[in-house]
Amino acid sequence: MDYIVPHGTRIGHIHLKVSDIDKALSFYKDLLGFQIMARYGTQAVFIAADNYHHHIGLNTWYSKDAKPAPVHAAGLFHTAILYPTRKELAIIFKRLLDANYPFTGFADHGVSEALYLNDPDENGVELYWDKPHEQWPIDDNGNINMYTKELNIESLLGELNV
Question: Sorting pLDDT into bands at 50, 70 and 90, what band is 17?
Fold first, then answer.
């Protein structure tokens, strides 16, 4: 019998190699709003949302002043940060727009809506919210039928007026 990951298992955190802790913090803390939970000298910092010990670890142990990893190489594609509501996604979207932060894409995946960008070290970042399960596209066999369509940006920003 094939092993199946136990129910309730989830990804607890990621740890990213960055070239400069302060530059990474200007993105993850100052722009996205994560809180510093612990610092380890000038080489590492753990950040989180809420009161979790850390959702993201940032370190320069092997990467201080290094160039970004090549796009066409094996490695992390992106870190996905899940927002609790569509309105919260709209708030961070507006914050990034106001800061003139560059986006790499936008998508409606049927099950979620997503904003794509890169951090200062060119690590991909997806900011998204999950649609309610009853809105997910399900085929006749009960399988999720995810897709990538254009995100209705005006509708997303309309959440700010609700």
Answer: very high
CA pair distance 69, 109, nearest whole angstrom: 27
**Same domain, yes or no: 51 and 81:** no
Task: Kindly report the CATH number assigned to the domain that includes residue 46.
Answer: 3.10.180.10
Partner residues linked to 127 by β-bridges: 81, 115
One domain, residues 41 and 84: no
14 token code pair: 């990621």
Contact between 151 and 108 (Cβ < 8 Å):
yes
- Structural domain boundaries, residue 53: 12-65
Look at residue 37 and give its three-state secondary structure. Answer: strand
DSSP letters of 55-113? SEEEE-TTTTTPPPPPTTSSS--EEEEEESSHHHHHHHHHHHHHTTPPEEEEEE-SSEE
152 and 132 fall within a common domain: yes
Does 124 lie in the same domain as 162?
yes
Contact 107, 116 (CB under 8 A): yes
Here the tokens at position 12 are: 């607890």
What mean pLDDT is reported for the chain? Answer: 96
